[in-house]
Amino acid sequence: MNLLSIGASYRTADVAVLERLAIPEPSVPELLQRLVAQPYVGEAVVVSTCNRVEVYAAVSGFHGGLGDICNVLSEHSGIPATELAGHLYVHYGEAAVRHSFRVSSGLDSMVVGEAQILGQLRDAYHAATEVDSAGRLLHELMQQTLRVGKRAHAETGIDRAGQSVVTAALDVAAEHLGGDLTGKSALIIGAGAMGSLSVATLTRNGIGSLRITNRGQQRADRLAELYGATSVPFGDLDSVLREVDIVVCATASTEPVLTRDRLELVGKDLVVLDLAVPRDVAPDAAGLPGLTIVDIDSLANSRRTGPAAAETAAVEQIVTGEVDTFLGWLRGAEIAPTVAALRTRADEVVSSEMRKLMSRRPEFTEEQRGDVSRTLHRVVQQLLHSPTVRVRQLAAEPGGDQYAALLRQLFDLDVPLATQANAVPEIGGKP
């Protein structure tokens, strides 16, 4: 098996494509099951955020796995595979490992260094674990991906500014409101992770009046109580829109919450930050007098201040070292079934010779037979110990994948392909 990651992000697709690709949380288990039901896909993890949709998979072949995953994404999104291909990036083998580590470290984020992606990756991994779509390879990859992301944030200043998609959007909003949000009034629509982050960020930035609404009133009430904001019924949305300066939309709705008709009734200047994918603001609302819409597309096209070059370089160095470590683990793991087969062959030889010896020496007592058997096994295990330890060490080094093949050839070992595939993924090969 080999690692394959396929996805689309703000770098390769606009929000219209991303919202068609977006996978609502309740739909993730079904999509994971569809992926692992494909002929070339053995394991799968799906990440769906406001600015990226990615599939991490263990596949038995590059072209077959690529075709299987693209077909599933095409069916899910309704985008023809030929059209979808133009928006996708593909990473295979070592490149897939590197991409995963760069994502968790915030290096591939729209706002470089943002830490929210760690929680999103953790949720994606948990969802895959729940439906058992992550096997040994993806369990190891995701665990190391999360660890590398935590290390990058702990050991460098990549997120020192506390930047996120929310802070970047609020920076744009401030530019439209005279450069300062202090004393302005805001409404948050949605009480999920993005809504909560928006409330926390606005509170920290000294926003004046802050109101929260959500279709589930209890979640809005709890969030408002936590930050000293005001919870308002979702049914009062139209009246509240006319009373605020900024609206942050972050719901999981599959249909626009702010339609053109609703926004036409506002009758005043209003800045709307649409951080949802699919969009919470109807596309045909763009251009309404007094309405400023900041969405994922406009954020992707803006150039916000990021971490210092030294910080990103430090994270890149961490990623490079961790990729080498991960590849070493994979190469070391590849030798395991071959070493096991060698030891099994040795045990078979000892047992065969013991049977021959006992047939020639029937006068041996059971105690004597046991002593001879144990002695033979100890001699063989001692002879094998140093070579097998050393071959594991050599196998973990670059180019070490050759040692398993050499052992199989030298000792004429029969290691089933299924055992090799399950125990050891191949990394770094050509597509």
Give me a quick take on this structure.
This protein has helices at 15-21, 28-36, 62-77, 81-84, 94-104, 116-130, 136-155, 165-176, 193-204, 217-227, 237-241, 260-264, 296-301, 309-334, 336-360, 366-395, 402-410, 417-423; strands spanning 2-9, 41-48, 52-59, 89-92, 186-189, 210-213, 230-231, 246-249, 270-274, 291-294. With 431 residues, the protein is of the alpha/beta class.
Descriptive keywords:
431 residues, alpha/beta, six-stranded parallel beta sheet
Overall description:
The protein is α/β, with parallel strands linked by helices and 431 residues long. The protein is built from 18 helices and 10 strands. The protein has helices spanning 15-21, 28-36, 62-77, 81-84, 94-104, 116-130, 136-155, 165-176, 193-204, 217-227, 237-241, 260-264, 296-301, 309-334, 336-360, 366-395, 402-410, 417-423, and strands at residues 2-9, 41-48, 52-59, 89-92, 186-189, 210-213, 230-231, 246-249, 270-274, 291-294. The strands form 2 sheets. A 6-stranded parallel beta sheet has the order 7-6-5-8-9-10. Strands 2-3-1-4 form a 4-stranded antiparallel beta sheet, sandwiched between helices. Strand 5 (186-189), helix 9 and strand 6 (210-213) form a beta-alpha-beta unit. The longest helix has 30 residues, at 366-395.
